[in-house]
Structures are given as C-alpha cells and as structure tokens.
Design brief:
Strand order of the largest sheet: 3-2-1-4-5-6-7
Helix content: 40-55%
Distance between the termini: 47 Å
CATH class of the largest domain: Alpha Beta
Number of strands: 7
Structural class: alpha/beta
CATH architecture of the largest domain: 3-Layer(aba) Sandwich
CATH topology of the largest domain: Pyrimidine Nucleoside Phosphorylase, Chain A, domain 2
Radius of gyration: 19 Å
Number of helices: 16
Largest sheet: 7 strands, mixed
Order of helices and strands: HHHHEHEHHEHHHHEHEEEHHHH
Number of domains: 2
Strand content: 5-15%
Length: 347
C-alpha cells in the first residue's frame, strides 16, 4: 500500500476503502516491519488522508473498541490525545460545570501519547484525585452517577494502545492521532472536537458521513487553543453539523454552518498568554478546584464558564452560547459544580 500512496504529494494515489482497511488491519496485526510502516505512515502524512481513508481506518478501529454506553446521552469530547504543554487544560473543569448544569460530558485520552506526549485529560484528573484507569463499564457508571465520565484508552481501545511504541519511534503525528479522537467509547450522539483550519472540519464531517461506525447526529468542531478542545481567547471559529437524515444519506449530508465566538463580546478581555501555566496538569487541577468552588473569579474562571457553555450548547440543552454561559455561571455560584467534583473524587 505504501507504493500506492507513497510516490509524492502530487503524484500519489489515494487508497480505496478496501485498500485502507487492509493496510490498517496489517498494522494492527503487527505485520509491517518498522521501515515499511514508517514509509506508509509518512506517505499518508504528506499525501494527506481523504475522508474515505479516514472512514476506513476509523471503522476498523471501532471494531476493536470495547466501549460501554451510559444511560444518559453525553457529549463526547475528543481532544488531541498527545496533549498540550503551555496553557491550562480547561476541559475537565468545563465538563464538570456542564455536568452540574445538566449536560452530561465524557472525555477520553491515553497516557503521554506520541508525538507530543504532553498532559491530557487523564493527567489533570489524576492530579484532582479522580480515578482514571477504569474499565469502560465503570466509566459509564461514573458518567451516570456524576454527569461527567472519563474513558481510558488502554481499557477501551487496546488495539490502538498497542501501537504506542511504534508511534513513538515514528516521531511525527500519523492518521492514528486523528482517528483515536473519534473512538466514541460512550456511544454518544454528539461529538465536540477541535481543529486548526476549517478545511479539517470539512474532512472530519465527510469522514463521519462515510463511516459505517460513527453514528453521531451532531458534530461541533472549533479552533482549539494549542490544538486542544479549549476556546481561544479573542476569536474562535466554530463549525456546526447535523446529520439530517438516516444513515443511508449521511455521506451526502456534508454541509455545515459556522459562526464565531469573540471572547470580548462576553466581557472577557484576555490573551492566550494570560492562560499560560508552568505545570499543565498540576496547575490545571488547582485552577479547576478554585474555579469550581467559586473562590477564583478571574480570567481562568471566565474561560471555564465559556468552555462549559459551548458543551451545553453542543448538546442543544440551550439555544445559544449566552444561555449556556448563564447556566454555567449558575452551576458554579450555587455550589453544584463543586458538588460534582466531590462526587468524582469519591467515586
């Protein structure tokens, strides 16, 4: 398959669905040697994957995913698994606030995933004393009990987890970094993800449409800060897609709406540098504690509330970001958010 897609950026051929599936089957089975695997991964990287290829890779991955759906219908937050290393991670605190406001949220990650191998959801939760190395069933129970759940990649996606060392030796991101965020271990109907450019949104939406396993009814993608699912200070572009038909029509349901979130319009005048931290996991955990308790009311508290508002809006529990922001701030002010964190720590 490396011969098909590896002749160069302009002359390389795209893989058919069948070819892409066969290639990934071989990778999961450990068939290619390091040289062949590296050539294939690099060829996919410089060629740029098509939605058809990504859908084939995702569908095969999904066959190996050991998910467990909670009774509630959560928002699936699929941030980049290789984490971030400069600004705080807001998704844990924001997810807890959303849960306290009545919007269940699930997040998932591994542990120091290549290539960045930086802090992700797991590491913030570990610092908070919330259990993370759970079976998928226990993760679902956590979600139903508290409104917030964490799914651990080695437990629900062992086939991808077993590729860790080969990905680490590769040294650059591969298509696995993209598809693992779409694993959807909780069987959610709504996916919230991040992107750098709108072109990537179109690719992901086409991937969802062409996939046989991804049955999201709604996808919200936004320009995440440092590539993570945290709203950027200043201007953040948001793309919103709804399926609008049965699975047989999904491949043609690729139009999406987009809008902008301007933090200044919500009275939040800060820059990315204002949200920088020294130790991402530890400082994000401490930030979460003080924001959820109501002790902290600065720019970090504003960022948590706004990110929670987007999660509440994603599930359509409110009609606007403004309404979501009101719900988020109420959940913090009345102690509901702090109570959810206490439940998670006691789980």
């Amino acid at each position: 398959m490396a011969e098909v897609c590896g002749s160069g950026h302009k002359s390389a051929d795209d893989l058919t669905r069948e070819q892409a599936r066969e290639a990934f089957e071989r990778i999961i089975a450990g068939v290619p040697n390091d040289t062949t695997l590296g050539a294939f991964w690099l060829a996919n990287r410089w060629k740029r994957n098509t939605p058809t290829e990504l859908a084939a890779y995702t569908d095969l991955m999904s066959e190996h995913v050991d998910g467990y759906a909670p009774d509630c219908d959560p928002v699936d937050c699929g941030a980049n698994y290789d984490g971030k290393g400069r600004t705080a991670i807001f998704g844990v605190a924001a997810g807890v606030v959303a849960a306290a406001a009545g919007t269940p949220v699930v997040v998932h990650s591994g542990d120091r995933i290549p290539t960045q191998k930086q802090d992700a959801y797991k590491h913030v939760l570990d610092e908070l004393g919330v259990p993370t190395e759970l079976s998928p069933r226990t993760s679902a129970e956590m979600t139903d009990k508290t409104g917030f759940g964490f799914y651990y990649q080695p437990a629900f996606n062992p086939a991808v987890d077993e590729l860790f060392e080969r990905r680490d030796r590769m040294g650059v991101r591969t298509f696995v970094n993209t598809i693992e965020t779409l694993a959807n271990p909780a069987g959610a109907n709504v996916h919230l993800g991040s992107f750098y450019h709108l072109a990537f949104v179109k690719k992901i939406i086409h991937t969802v449409g062409e996939s046989d396993s991804l049955d999201f009814d709604r996808v919200i993608m936004f320009q995440g800060m440092d590539g993570y699912d945290d709203i950027r200070p200043g201007l953040t572009k948001v793309a919103e897609w709804n399926a609008g038909g049965d699975n047989g029509d999904r491949a043609n349901q690729t139009d999406f709406d987009d809008f902008e979130i301007q933090t200044a319009e919500y009275g939040m005048a800060f820059e990315s540098e204002d949200l920088a931290v020294g130790n991402v996991a530890a400082d994000s955990a401490q930030m979460a504690k003080t924001v959820l308790s109501g002790e902290r009311t600065d720019t970090f508290a504003d960022a948590v509330a706004l990110n929670a508002a987007l999660r509440i809006y994603a599930r359509e529990d409110v009609d606007s970001i403004d309404e979501g922001l009101d719900a988020a701030r109420t959940a913090i002010a009345d102690g509901s958010a702090a109570a959810v964190l206490e439940e998670l720590q006691a789980f």
